[in-house]
Write a structure and sequence with these properties.
Two copies of one chain form a homodimer.
Chain A: H1 5-24, H2 31-42, E1 46-47, H3 48-55, H4 59-71, E2 75-79, E3 87-91, H5 96-113, H6 119-139
Antiparallel strand pairs in A: 1-3, 2-3
Helix pairs in contact in A: 1-5, 2-4, 3-4
Chain A binds a DNA duplex (30 and 30 nucleotides) through residues 14, 17-18, 21, 30-32, 47-49, 57-67, 83-87.
Chain lengths: 144, 144
Amino acid sequence: MEKRFTRYASIIDRQSKSYYDRALKEYKIGCGQQFFLLWIYESPGVPLTVLSEQGRFDKGTTTKAVQKLKQLGYIRSEQDEKDKRMQKLFVEEKAIPVVEKIYAVREKINSLLSTGFTKEEEALAGIILKKMSENAGTYLTENK
Amino acid sequence: MEKRFTRYASIIDRQSKSYYDRALKEYKIGCGQQFFLLWIYESPGVPLTVLSEQGRFDKGTTTKAVQKLKQLGYIRSEQDEKDKRMQKLFVEEKAIPVVEKIYAVREKINSLLSTGFTKEEEALAGIILKKMSENAGTYLTENK
DNA sequence: ATAATATAGTTGGGTATGCAACGAATTTTG
DNA sequence: CAAAATTCGTTGCATACCCAACTATATTAT
């Protein structure tokens, strides 16, 4: 059978991004910030490196997303006392409505993506995609 | 269960793109052209609109990828006689080694992505991802 | 302790991509 | 048939992203 995993992943990713962009426009952020804002919300004080690792983003990408969130006043950073290179990130009050909106949009997108799936298929999809993304991180990267 | 389909799709897509970029560097193309070159190879005379639809790419994205392939001499276009707006696309001899390379890389990526999968899981992954990408095209887009 | 290495984060540059506005050709409508 | 609407493709602009080079701080090795 012809496998076309990447083609499907690409379509899912692009369409989801476009949906996020439309849904978050009113908050002045795009698809590129949602992941980071929620992660900071869920892990107060998280440093940039951890964000990069968790999303498998380049450090530069993470820096720029974080800068945008900071400019908008949605997060703030504190320098770590012990390691002065490290910035600990926190969500600001102002961002709470945005966080809630992102959760809702994420939920919506994920349920639209699994339209017509049985409960079993949906669970299986989660497991398979997780495994595949782990493989991507392990076997498709240059280093490691 | 918490669904995170988009996160996984995003990682798979980004890592695959990076792999394509590294693997195709010697041919002066990047991840953004592989889909189009193969499709033109498999469907001689295909117009730009069909490429856009099949990959669910924006028309502008398709135009730019096609322009790059043309500049490199990998494809040529012919104006349709009946409908003068339409460009029919064809692969040039020069591109054959590139086409073969892309097939090999695609195969490699897809097999790396399914590392550790049973035959059943692999087949299931294809079915589920296909379905999900169709849902993305149907339910996540603005129009239609 | 000092030199070599490693790590956190930033920056500059390039590619991929979507979106909106456009021009040209075609089709549909009244 | 002429005007309006649609369709094919292009272009300009903006965002997301990776990569490589860099600074500053921290850690390890000699």
